[in-house]
Amino acid sequence: MRSARPAGALTLCVVTWLLASGCSGLLPRSTEVTASPWQTYREAQQTFDKIIPGKTTAAELRELALDPESMPNIAILNYSDVLRRFMLNQSVTLSDLDQGVQECVMAKTVCRGYEINQRQVKKQRNGSFWLDLFGFKRETHVEGWRFNALILLKDEVVVYKLTGGQPVIQESEHQQNPLGPVQSIGSKLMGGWL
Fold this sequence. Notes:
With 194 residues, the protein is of the alpha+beta class. It is built from seven helices and five strands; from the N terminus they run αβααβααβαββα. Helix 4 runs antiparallel to helix 5.
């Protein structure tokens, strides 16, 4: 019977410590990373700055690691894919498009495009494990970057390039439910009646 007291005291100490510390190390974390030769947005942009429409060839793109056969997550577009992307409705005509896009579309089967979408996003929940678990308070922090680009080639020469994205992603989301799990149950019940 005496040995039960030290075990009970130890359990009480562990539970007290967990409650006091908030157990933030137990909160979920996630990372979304697209396989890429670049670690940052700037590295990706610097690679694309080396591409010169009218000069850069498909072989030179391979040297820059922009080859769909060796670099993952590059979509290959045919000329009808390109046409759909640029001529979204009937009010846009071929003459409205950039000269490089016009050349590519008019070349038809010798036109192709590369669509590159790269991202690195980390999500981390912060705060108290217990408040998060029971739905009273949830804090999520998101950070990272997103890069996208389009390259059009005609007869194995780049005729058009376009880059965009988001160099810095920093978002915070805070949810507070004063009634915790009771509030989410109430929302589900009320949602069913509405």
